[in-house]
Amino acid sequence: MLCVGWYTYEKVDRRNYPHFPDDQIAVSGHDRPTIVTWKGTEEFTILDKMVTEMIANYQENAQEVEL
User: Is the separation of the CB atoms in 48 and 61 below 8 Å?
Assistant: First the structure.
């Protein structure tokens, strides 16, 4: 089984919010789609290839970021 979900990061204006007005990023995950596929299906093969290529790309191009 392969399960792939997404989180999105969106810039928002919270200057008038009473809590954390300096936090200008909204993170969404609970309302984003997830794809579930099973090994042996064409969908699994396609998604597995995509994820494998993305991981290789991230590993090859990763840069340290100061937090």
Answer: no
Structure-block tokens of residue 40: 């042996």
Distance CA 23, CA 63 (A): 24
- Model pTM? 0.59
Indicate the helix (H) or strand (E) that contains 28: strand 25-28
Q: Give the CB-side neighbour count of residue 55, counting CA atoms within 13 A.
A: 7
pLDDT, tens digit (0-9, with 9 covering 90-100), for 20-45: 888 888 899 888 889 999 999 999 99
**What Cα–Cα distance (Å) separates residue 64 from each residue in 1, 7, 54, 58?**
32, 21, 18, 12
Cβ neighbours for 16, distance < 8 A, ≥ 6 positions apart: none
